[in-house]
Design goal:
The complex is a heterodimer of chains A (270) and B (299). The longest helix of chain A has 34 residues. With 270 residues, chain A is mainly α. Chain A is globular and about 65 Å long. Chain B has 299 residues and is an all-alpha fold. Chain B has 2 domains: 44 residues, no CATH class; 235 residues, MetI-like fold, CATH 1.10.3720. Chain B is 77% helix and 0% strand. Chains A and B meet through helix 1, helix 3, helix 4, helix 5 and helix 7 of A and helix 1, helix 3, helix 5, helix 6 and helix 7 of B.
């Protein structure tokens, strides 16, 4: 039986933790929805149905639709090589895959300007061929791919390492081909972890701001993603509209949290 | 398991599989796809990450040393380092203290709404930084829910360096909780109970028994939160005020230089940040290895 003093310590600690989480997490999240609806649902709806907002939503979806499958395919390949085989430099490779997480988003944008910009390595060649990468849509897709690069790989590598190679070897010995083994044995084993990585990858892809801000041309309705559109509205003091578009991304965050929480239990069951 | 797989395991009990069987006299890997998967990994990693990042270092290598030093030690740039690193450190410290309390409460005390609180901890990972930025700015503005009472107490948060601290605390919050939580979960309660039975007070049991075990994880979480904070941009620029010399973070200095077409200057500052980030990454890897060793000794 706990002593009275430890009961008060317990209550005090719970209250401290909840006050901290409430002030820094719950209230800001609730504030987004309150502000979005402050001037009424129709104002919020008009802000979302605005052609520039719709164009921003389309561009955000486009960037995620390209970046997430690319990083998914890469993550599976990297996890297969790193988890199923031993080779020198394996741990260095794992560290290099995590590199984009330790690079500031602003610097991620900057390095792509250095490669593809007018002053950059490929700038003159791109100009001669009438192609535009930075300050245009391809640049947005590229930096989105960079900042979301590690998500799927870092989920799959430890998972596939923990599962070992016995099942795949058994399948191979029984005559299954490489792809057959992968689709029938490996993929079903890692499906929840894979989905987990994809969901986190997607949330970051749709929400990225700093890196995209550097390489976007900031042409309203053309090279603005949802986060950039929010910034434009906010800088124009259209707070209700900015929070209305922000509330869509906050909803995405909530869906992400719910799926993440549900998937964590699935992954742990395995 | 098939017989040949069993034989392969018997020959190779620790599961090591080498590329060159001739060199190590180990059996050839049964699984196919090594060349393809490693090839795809290396090409894609190089194209998306390594080549673009090397552009920053090569661009800076073209600068003369004095020009580089001038660019990265200009007073406005140094003021931005002081703000960025100082506030990142303060935010990571606050997160270390409160993150430890949150992790402890989530692991040890059942209370109504615990699952919701647990899931909510990841919000800063899931909520786009621009959304966090405008929400925190609205809350801490002089007429906001938190800003108004604070302003009455004479504390200005939004559009001051304190605003930077608030934003960095928000985005660093999950790191400490999520690194400490699994370690606390593996720590048997009996250890503290034994300490208390032997006459230790609750605080002594925590300081002598629990704290040493969670310390590596706590430091890892602290370093992760700090590393994330120094590069953060989206959640900070709305609330910071962005006054040069006072409330301008280093990532914003890089963007300002880029907008003035000072590519060399922007890249020089970026290289300083990259070197710091890579040093932190190395430190974090060492801390994580320490955490694993500490845990291995525990279980």
């Amino acid at each position: 039986m706990a002593a009275p003093s430890s009961r008060w310590v317990r209550r005090g600690l719970i209250a401290t933790a909840l006050a901290f989480l409430g002030a820094f997490l719950f209230v800001p999240l609730a504030f987004v929805f309150v502000e979005a609806l402050r001037k009424g649902a129709d104002v919020a709806w008009r802000a979302i149905a605005d052609p520039d907002a719709l164009a921003a939503i389309r561009l955000t979806l486009l960037a995620a639709t390209i970046a997430v499958p690319l990083n998914l395919a890469f993550g599976v390949a990297a996890a297969w090589a790193i988890a199923k085989f031993r080779f020198p430099g394996r741990s260095v490779l794992t560290t290099l895959i995590d590199l984009p997480f330790s690079v500031s988003p602003v610097i991620a944008g900057l390095v792509f300007v250095l490669v593809f910009g007018m002053q950059g390595w490929l700038g003159p060649w791109l100009r001669d061929h009438d192609l535009k990468v930075v300050f245009a849509v391809p640049g947005i897709v590229l930096v989105t791919t960079f900042v979301t690069f590690p998500f799927v790989a870092r989920e799959l590598i430890p998972l596939m390492q923990a599962q070992g190679v016995e099942q795949e070897e058994a399948a191979a010995v029984l005559g299954a081909g490489g792809w057959q083994t992968f689709w029938r044995v490996t993929l079903p084993n890692v499906r929840w972890g894979l989905l987990y990585g994809v969901i986190l990858c997607n949330a970051r892809a749709m929400g990225e701001f700093g890196a995209v801000a550097v390489v976007s041309g900031h042409v309203r309705g053309e090279t603005t993603t949802m986060p950039l559109h929010i910034e434009i509205l906010y800088d124009e003091y259209q707070f209700a509209a900015a929070f209305a578009v922000a509330s869509l991304l906050a909803l995405l965050a909530l869906v992400t949290l719910v799926l993440k929480y549900a998937l964590e239990r699935k992954v742990h069951e395995h | 398991m098939s017989s040949s797989a069993l034989i392969a395991r018997a020959l190779d009990p620790d599961g090591a599989r080498w590329l060159a069987p001739a060199a190590s006299r180990r059996p050839r890997p049964v699984l196919p796809g090594f060349g393809l998967s490693l090839g795809v990994t290396l090409v894609y990693l190089s194209l998306i990450v390594l080549v673009p990042l090397s552009a920053a270092f090569l661009k800076t290598a073209q600068m003369s040393w004095p020009a580089f030093v001038d660019a990265v030690t200009a007073p406005r740039v140094v003021a931005s380092y002081r703000l960025t690193f100082g506030m990142s450190l303060a935010a990571a410290l606050v997160n270390a203290v409160f993150g430890l309390i949150v992790a402890w409460v989530l692991v040890r005390y059942p209370f109504p709404g615990r699952r919701i609180a647990d899931a909510l901890v990841d919000l800063p990972f899931a909520l786009p930084t621009a959304v966090a930025g405008i929400a925190l700015t609205g809350l801490f503005a002089p007429n906001g829910w938190f800003g108004a009472p604070l302003a009455q107490a004479g504390i200005k948060v939004a559009f001051t360096p304190l605003g930077v601290f608030v934003a960095l605390t928000f985005i660093g919050l999950p790191f400490v909780v999520r690194t400490v939580q699994p370690v606390l979960a593996t720590l048997p309660r009996e250890l503290e109970e034994a300490a208390t039975t032997l006459g230790a007070t609750g605080a002594q049991a925590f300081a002598r028994v629990v704290f040493p075990v969670v310390l590596p994880a706590l430091l890892t979480g602290f370093a992760l939160a700090f590393a994330r904070a120094i590069g953060e941009y989206g959640s900070v620029i709305f609330i910071a005020g962005n006054l040069p010399m006072i409330s301008e973070i280093t990532p914003l200095v890089i963007i300002t230089k880029l907008e003035q077409y000072d590519y060399a200057g922007a890249t020089a500052v970026a290289v300083v940040m990259l070197v710091v980030s890579f040093a932190l990454l190395l430190a974090i890897n060492l801390l994580q290895a320490w955490t694993r060793r500490r845990l291995g000794a525990q279980v």
